Amino acid sequence: MLTLSQISRFYGDTVALDGVDFVVPEDTYMSLLGASGSGKTTLLRLIAGFEEPNHGEISINSKRIDGQAPHLRDIGFVFQNFALFPHLSVAENVAFGLRYRAENPLSNNSEILDRTQEALKLVGLDGFGHRGVGAISGGQRQRVALARTLVCEPRIVLLDEPLGALDANLRARMCDELRAIRERLGVSFLHVTGSETEALTMGDEVAVLANGRITQSDAPDTLFSQPRTAEAARHMNAWNTFDGGLCGDALSNQEIAVRFDQMEVCAPGTAPQDHLSLKAQYLTGEFNGPTALSFFRASDGSLLQIIDHLSQPRLPDLIEGQDYDLHFSSNALRQFHGAA
Amino acid sequence: MQSGILRPALATYTALFLLFLYGPMIVLAILSFQSIDGGPQFPIRDWSTYWYQHLLGLAESSRVSQLPVGESLVRSILLAFMTTVVSTILGVMSAEAFRTKFKGSGPAFYLIILGMMVPGVLVGLGMALLSNTLGIGRAWWSTSFVLHVVYTYPFAFLIMLAIFNRFDRTVEEASFSLGVPPAQTFRRVTFPIIFPGVLSAMLFSFTLSYDEFARTLFTAGRDLTLPLSIYGTFSVEIYPNIFAFGVLTTLFSFTLLVIYGLLMKRFTAKASRFSGQEDAA
């Protein structure tokens, strides 16, 4: 179990991380979701030991690891750019850790060969060992990076946007494979990403990093349907967060959130009595294939989105620039205390 | 754009420029094939390889004494080799240090660079005075050697700095994360990747030291290096054997360059990148 308590990291006056408390349990696929610049890569680098926190403690199984040299931490790291050793072949890349690590290096060539083969087989690269790392594709490099890390059997594997450099098709496939590989090995993965879809798909648990803190850490469905903070809701990219005062005085001074798919549109003044409603101007629509997004601007300037599924259209015909009432049932509402 | 005229014009200009650049060397090469009774100028009386034979001591006795370059050539090569080793090691180590900002890195940087900026005559003279004051004898392998290192080390340092500037630090971090300690990481990852840069640093150090004149002039003491002894022969009378020698040393330099090129090619070909992305099967 990896535990971070009160981890802070500054760069001059810039605060990257501000008291992060975070736990990655054993045998878990943990996704860490954060916008770019939220400090998620910094967090991984602190855990790996490439940088040290200004405050706080990092421990694995209650033993502190902060302050320890990175090569003694026994933590695997898969880089966004893969960081393969360009002068070595695929097999030499994978065997590298086994051969040259400080603790318990292997010198028996046939054992190294066996374990390298095994690792390559695990990631589906059987027979690629002799290739140069310049002569394989992006997806294959990703697998080599993974095999190289896994073959050393680290206590936890950190993945820094591991799918970021792959195209969309490949990404979807690697998602499934990463999960499958992790389940087979039983080691915890901490997967950092900026994509909510990726985080929700991959994670047994998803943590949201915002404003230098972990704002919520939960199972994907819980996080998606019941975000506890406005930041968490915003990161799901499925919630409109706005000032409750727009719907009447009862909710004023609260930030509230309603999911894109739980808002309805009607002509001004025709909203059902039992629904909460607000006035907004229709800006434009965006067709995404199976879904369509409609954008509205509320009177205080906040942007609201409503999603419509092609198979079950529920929105009236909308005219750009016209005002409409947006309404939703009070069950759909999530309230966060404190002003927006 | 008027590229119809511009391109041939630029091409001609470049060709002329290169000709101008190598003109002196070409003249020298032609004159080295002067016949036995010809002088160090045109016209060529007759084509021969006499002066090459003379240079190598293969010619029959001659009115011209043999060029006294044998020992100084060995000295120069030895000195250049020593300088190369020391400067390159220092250059790599200090460039490695400059990868992270440290206190006083600014002044340290300029102090290192100063070694290649200050006029050689001045440093040479200064070194001569200093060694006299301290009572240290001057010799090509001591005082000159120190100055050669002072002179070539900044070049090696700058080259390595440029190499490290483009160096992707994550491969080192990847190595650490595999449990490999820093020393092994340097040996197995960093060094092989920066090796082309190291070769360049070595080439620069070697050539700069090999034909260094001003600094050596004041500090070499009794035993001369090659540039000094060639210069010494000028004061007597010039014969085409010097040209023959010039051609041979140029060939030697070219050989070094070819070796450098081949090594470069070998080490960069391995790291050549496949840039596309295909389906991972």
From TrEMBL, chain A:
Organism lineage: Bacteria, Pseudomonadati, Pseudomonadota, Alphaproteobacteria, Rhodobacterales
Segments forming domain ABC transporter: 2-236
Organism name: Pacificibacter maritimus
Source organism superkingdom: Bacteria
GO molecular function terms attached to this record: ATP binding; ATP hydrolysis activity
PANTHER family: SPERMIDINE/PUTRESCINE IMPORT ATP-BINDING PROTEIN POTA (PTHR42781), SPERMIDINE_PUTRESCINE IMPORT ATP-BINDING PROTEIN POTA (PTHR42781:SF4)
UniProt keyword list: ATP-binding, Nucleotide-binding, Transport
Pfam family, one: ABC_tran
Protein name: Putative spermidine/putrescine transport system ATP-binding protein
UniProtKB/TrEMBL annotation, chain B:
Topological category with respect to the lipid bilayer: Multi-pass membrane protein
BP-aspect Gene Ontology terms: transmembrane transport
InterPro entries: Bact_Polyamine_Transport (IPR051789), MetI-like (IPR000515), MetI-like_sf (IPR035906)
Location of this chain's protein in the cell: Cell membrane
GO CC terms, sorted: plasma membrane
Entry superkingdom: Bacteria
Domain ABC transmembrane type-1 per the UniProt entry, residue ranges: 73-260
Family: Belongs to the binding-protein-dependent transport system permease family. CysTW subfamily.
Protein name (record): Putative spermidine/putrescine transport system permease protein
Species of origin: Pacificibacter maritimus
The organism's taxonomic lineage, starting at the top: Bacteria, Pseudomonadati, Pseudomonadota, Alphaproteobacteria, Rhodobacterales
